[in-house]
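## Example record

The block below lists the input lines for one assembly entry, exactly as stored, with component labels intact.
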Amino acid sequence: MPGSGPVEALRGVTFAMQRGELLAVMGPSGAGKTTLCLALCALVPHSTGGTFGGNVVVQSRNTRSTLPAEMSAHVGVVFQDPESQLFTTIVEDEVAFALESQGLPREEIGRRVDWALERVRMTEHRHRNPAYLSGGQKQRVAIAAAIAPRPELLVLDEPTASLDPVGAQEVIQVLADLRRDLDSSVLVVTHDAELAGDFADRLLLLKEGHIGYDGPPAQAFQDPALLAEYAIRPPALAELSAWLTEHGRPARFHTFEQASEALSRPLTTAD
Amino acid sequence: MPLIEVTDLHHSFPDGWDALDGVNFAVEAGEYVALIGPNGSGKTTLAKHLNGLLKPTSGRVLVAGMDTAHGSVAALARRVGYVFQNPDHQIFCTTVEEEISFAPRAQGLPPEIVGNRAQEEMRAFGLVEVAARPPAILSPGLRRKVAIASVLAAQPDLLVLDEPSVGLDAHEQEDVLARVSDYRHDGRSVVLITHDMALVTRWATRCLLLSEGRILADGTPGAVLGDSSALARAGMRPPALARLAQALAPLGMPTDAVQVEAFGRAYLELVEGRS
Amino acid sequence: MNFGDLYLPGDSWLHRADPRLKMGLALAAATLLLSYNNLFIMALSLTAVVAVLRGAGVPWARLRAIARLMVPVVIVIPLLWPIFYQSGPTILVVWKLRLTAWALAQGVTAALRIVALGYVSIAVLLTTDIRALLRGLVQVGLPFEAALTVTIALSYIPRIQRTYEQVTEAQMARGFDVNAGNLVVRARARVPILVASLVSTFRSADTMARALECRGFGRTDVARTSYFRIHWRPSDTAVAVGAGLFFLIALSARVVLGFGSHPLLLL
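Predicted structure tokens for the full assembly:
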């Protein structure tokens, strides 16, 4: 942050991701989540400057020796603000941009644009100007643009934070579908515990540049003290299961399916 | 006399879009009203009538006895504080302290009162350490706090907040909204525009559901968020607990239990009643 | 509708024409407008330019809005001209200033030229969508980086305008009376609005720069390809040949024969 001297955004973060893994990263403001995203696509340190130690390696490419523009074929990024990450005036141009940067032949670009737009359900809007789309639609275009090069890693930095619930739900639905269709690994930074719980296999909790938890989301969401420490609002359903446990009806759930099954059982089996 | 009195409010934009189509409601001093509804339902259009940024096409808006159709936005600004969605749009001073002092100073209050108000808000929002820093370079969470503090320093009778929680973590949200809630306890009112249903159940005393320029539901947060047919008509997804209550309704679960504790108690009662 | 959105979607011949042809036509027209200096020819040229834009479906309201931007220049130029230009029959003497018929004609010609040049240079933007403009600029030889910068800047105008409007509202809500007081007071009230608008704009420009890099912008190790194509059609060739001939004849008439160099006399 300018004007306040150097700030250590990340200090000694070590983790590995397997191919196909779906990882959520959560933590309070200023924990270094965005810096982590920028490091994965080589913007840190190439474009942001600052002091950089350690190594970030994505599919055997070290970010120290790979420029962000070259990394773009391997790491797709979606930022929080749907407005300012779109810069063309036609949806399909937005999706084609990274493919053009890679010098792909026109026919291949066409095929991948079709594929990516279909994944995010934006095919019917391909000739529209992104400026006139809703927030959720803009963010879906940004996701299509990021997945079109078939990156090994997809990074999403708070993709739903600026959206209304309808838009956020659209994006969450698209991400859920991508779980099946994409063989990329996905890292999503979010404040939304429900999104993290539904989507991720694994949760990293980050605070003051350190990783403080690395494990299954379900376990973290049953631990109110841990969540409070990381400024995470627990999913309402996890809170409910904690409340019931505290009041003599032990329960352990955080998704809707788990909850409705667990809670309806005592009401039906008694008959 | 109610603090806000909106009577048969219609607003049409120059392109012919009828953003508000006959809105009626009144808010008493001390109420904390959440305004919910999908994008394009008219929430922000309605809120901008409360400080005169928009004038009614027909109908009437009275705030603290003043008709907002007359009188400038600047004059209404003394009674109605409005915190916009993007804090960057209202921040322009070179230090945090100046920013927060701006409104009371512009009202012509004596310097010691201006100073006291600024100190009070900076303490309440934890901004004392950054008092001399330029607000534009602070983190999003701190910029949001500066924006709200600089509006509260004017001590308006009515505070309108447009999506104040976006980009904040749970602790920052709690800080900001707890301060807003304290502010209300001095007989002032708050209108909160939000998409976050958890904030509605946590803070508001009343909830208005807007859809296509009309009020579809008006009641306690539990009653409105538990009204799944109204939410469905508005195209909104009920919060998780409301959906769960709905799913368990055939087994006897009441649908207005949309808070963890209320839900838990209702559920325990139901289970104990069976055995 | 947003004035910042220059492009007017349509299906006229000008819309369908290849952007390279349109840029060439605009360049040729501007050259002729700058070389001719005759009131009647200039009036005729302006009429022709307006006719072409009307033919391309540009509404009068838009033409008026563009003309309004040029009003200050259009008023000042005919007023200044008599100071420097003193030959020809005298019409009027005010104190030591002599207004001659030729100076008056010269001033009006210059004003008409400004308007015509304004319309010609904006005609390309009014009838070419940004993606076609980008391809056109690249294919006439501009580096991709430069062409993209130009087109992003153009598409940024409406965003800046929107930001400015939102900031104005936010500042009014804080008690700024942006429309009260004399000119100086009002100008000063605009300062915070400009500051806040700039900060917001820089912030989003920063994100955009990052997004561009993450999509491979500026990559030097592979040659960039293009998904969208522009098409040069036979009709474009026909127009280019016709316009080229006209341009050569008109320019030689002016340069070789000296036709149209006097503000009022044709030969």
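The first strand of chain C starts at residue 90 and ends at 94. The interface with chain B takes residues 163, 166-167, 169-177, 180, 191-193, 195-196, 199-200, 203 of chain C (CB under 8 Å).
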